[in-house]
Amino acid sequence: MQKFHAVTGIAVPLRRSNVDTDQIIPAVYLKRVTKTGFEDALFAAWRQDPEFVLNKPAYRGARVLVAGADFGTGSSREHAVWALRDYGFDVVLSPRFGDIFRGNSGKQGLLAGEISEADAETLWTVLESDPGLELTVDLVDRTVRVGDLTVSFEIDDYTRWRLLEGLDDIGLTLRDEARISEFESTREPWLPRTLPALSSPDVTP
Amino acid sequence: MTNAALTGERPRTLAEKVWDKHLVAKGEDGTPDLIYIDLHLVHEVTSPQAFDGLRLAGRPLRRPDLTIATEDHNTPTLHIDRPIADVTSRTQIETLRSNCAEFGVRLHSLGDIEQGIVHVVGPQLGLTQPGITVVCGDSHTSTHGAFGAMAFGIGTSEVEHVMATQTLPLKPFKTMAITVEGTLRPGVSAKDIILAVIAKIGTGGGQGYVLEFRGSAIRSLSMEGRMTICNMSIEAGARAGMIAPDATTYEYLRGRAHAPSGADWDDAVAYWETLATDEGAGFDAEVVLDADALEPFVTWGTNPGQGVSLSDTVPNPETITDDNERAAAERALEYMDLAAGTPMKQIRVDTVFLGSCTNSRVEDLRAAAEIVKGRTLADGVRMLVVPGSARVRIEAEAEGLDKIFTDFGAEWRFAGCSMCLGMNPDQLAPGERCASTSNRNFEGRQGKGGRTHLVSPLVAAATAIRGTLSSPWDLAADLAAGATSHTASHTASHTASHTASNTASNGEK
């Protein structure tokens, strides 16, 4: 994962709450077995509407999305994060995120920053008054800056540290490999195992 | 008597006990805890990139014996003996097969008796047990919490993490008690409880929490009903829902393929008996619901929190004070093509879907079959019945449920996720309206432009008979009002038109 410090880029105001992951990427796009190439799938249904905000030329090349509360709720599909990344977004700001989406973001280098409802409204107003405006999202001091305006965002310390350092989660955990093995040696023998494969008795009519 | 009272330890909740039991390393200075995972369920959609990651890093899959895979999201529910027609779906299934072979994972493929929706398969095999940790790259993993397991959905990066380490770094969750006291009236079921809970606390109300469902109404539910409730915890924003294990849980597990037996059974039960929340344990939040007052519940909007009692009307957005919620309601009504004030019972449907990890177990099918038995599907309505697993299908057929459904005019399909999310050919057409026993009424979830009303199997069955959103109460009222003569006049032409499709679907077996 690349180190993440600050991003300056065009920001898109998405005045919608409860943007579930089915909206971010509909299920028909989940059949691919790759981790890239999902940019066409992002908000696929909404993008068919020429008036949808992402279709406005001013927002071409955007890197920051400012959305309403409960962004990324619903399905666990990490494809939602891949689609946002592939489209070019580095940051999503929202007053509240779906838990699984927020976790997925942190692992894929997409910054999911929590802002207050009031700040979301302020940012929307500013961005809508000047479409294509650039803003700066700074992970070091957890702020969003645009012109004279500065608002702060929340992100948990651990995720922030991993993003700043560009650390790989699995590598971090495997440093504790000895403790995992030790834990495994204490597990009860009756805990379920999938192997050898067993099947319940067949149903007889 | 609680074990905390005996040992003098700090009283803990069910969730805290399972968490503590799986602590590999306690986090320090803001780092997360490292939690051991007892069971990893895998399916074709969220796993290929994870297997790829292992391959790229040259890492083995640490515990194939704690991992199990099935094919469910993409699989067709017709012609399962033929190659999958959709090339991308077929590729994804074939990728799972080759990955499982390469990494030594047991896979229940299409055609295997244990194949089916991953959240039906785990419990039916007895792999889902009280007090264990269960994860899967699917948000409805919360289903398994019905057994008193800590079970939650994860993203693909986490899937790879569990494959490589059998652990996950996690911040402790907050806990929320949802107490449901009283007795459900006939015609009201577990699905109505959870839809009412979500309407009450909202789709974000459970975020950051593990929900624990308790109270007399929960205790009196079967395991199937408990699974329905825990399944939809994610729809309230909670990653997990849990119910303390009891005699009902043990009875369900006893004798299943992977359940402990002999002396192991006694040891396991001894552990399971320690899991219930201690007296005096504190929750971070509490919600109370009255089961006596509950009516059949149904959604009107495009998120699962937008629900009302079936006897109610489509709400008026103007009465909503929160700006964002009002805007969301207005957009939902537009998408759903509904006018404020319309009685829910006047809404006509085109399709009824009985299935999904929420409501596709044999008990769900039985409950619906009992209602439609000897009746006729409403004019212009199609009904899909999709068992949760191949085993459920076979069990249902052994009881003659398939015959009841096909005689009624419904289509009897093979197992899978099917129309819950329409990754296979089972989709709504644009503008089509569906009463669905699934879990999400999001825009386009069941097919682009499709409109979903979430309902219980009982409401689904009654709706299929009447053609409008209905509950068994309405059927009883029809009978009382002598409305049967009206129904009878439809029956002749109906039966004829459905015979052809019945024959076709019977031919698929």
TrEMBL record, chain A:
Reactions accelerated catalytically: (2R,3S)-3-isopropylmalate = (2S)-2-isopropylmalate
CDD domains per record: IPMI_Swivel (cd01577)
Gene Ontology MF annotations: 3-isopropylmalate dehydratase activity
E.C. code: 4.2.1.33
GO biological process: L-leucine biosynthetic process
Coiled coil (UniProt feature): none
Swiss-Prot/TrEMBL keywords: Amino-acid biosynthesis, Branched-chain amino acid biosynthesis, Leucine biosynthesis, Lyase
Pathway: Amino-acid biosynthesis; L-leucine biosynthesis; L-leucine from 3-methyl-2-oxobutanoate: step 2/4
Claim: Lyase is one of the keywords in the record: yes
GO cellular component: 3-isopropylmalate dehydratase complex
Signal peptide (from-to): none
Short name of one Pfam family: Aconitase_C
Location of the Aconitase A/isopropylmalate dehydratase small subunit swivel domain: 1-115
Role: Catalyzes the isomerization between 2-isopropylmalate and 3-isopropylmalate, via the formation of 2-isopropylmaleate.
Complex and partners: Heterodimer of LeuC and LeuD.
UniProt similarity note: Belongs to the LeuD family. LeuD type 1 subfamily.
Protein name listed in UniProt: 3-isopropylmalate dehydratase small subunit
Native source species: Cryobacterium tagatosivorans
UniProtKB/TrEMBL annotation, chain B:
Transmembrane segment boundaries: none
Molecular-function GO terms, alphabetical: 3-isopropylmalate dehydratase activity; 4 iron, 4 sulfur cluster binding; metal ion binding
Required cofactor names: [4Fe-4S] cluster
EC number: 4.2.1.33
Keyword 4Fe-4S: yes
Keywords, comma-separated and alphabetical: 4Fe-4S, Amino-acid biosynthesis, Branched-chain amino acid biosynthesis, Iron, Iron-sulfur, Leucine biosynthesis, Lyase, Metal-binding
All copies of domain Aconitase/3-isopropylmalate dehydratase large subunit alpha/beta/alpha, residue ranges: 16-467
Gene3D superfamilies to which the protein is assigned, alphabetical: Aconitase, domain 3 (3.30.499.10)
Cofactor-binding details, from the entry: Binds 1 [4Fe-4S] cluster per subunit.
GO biological process: L-leucine biosynthetic process
Catalytic activity reported: (2R,3S)-3-isopropylmalate = (2S)-2-isopropylmalate
Pathway: Amino-acid biosynthesis; L-leucine biosynthesis; L-leucine from 3-methyl-2-oxobutanoate: step 2/4
InterPro entries named among the record's database cross-references: 3-IsopropMal_deHydase_lsu, Acnase/IPM_dHydase_lsu_aba_1/3, Acoase/IPM_deHydtase_lsu_aba, Aconitase_4Fe-4S_BS, Aconitase_4Fe-4S_dom, IPM_dehydratase_rel_enz, IPMI_cat
Region (Disordered): 488-509
The keyword Amino-acid biosynthesis appears for this protein: yes
Origin superkingdom: Bacteria
Top-level EC class: lyase
Binding site for [4Fe-4S] cluster: 357, 417, 420
Pfam families named among the record's database cross-references: Aconitase
Membership in a protein family: Belongs to the aconitase/IPM isomerase family. LeuC type 1 subfamily.
The protein's role, per its UniProt record: Catalyzes the isomerization between 2-isopropylmalate and 3-isopropylmalate, via the formation of 2-isopropylmaleate.
Subunit structure, as described in the record: Heterodimer of LeuC and LeuD.
Protein name: 3-isopropylmalate dehydratase large subunit
Organism: Cryobacterium tagatosivorans
Taxonomic path: Bacteria, Bacillati, Actinomycetota, Actinomycetes, Micrococcales
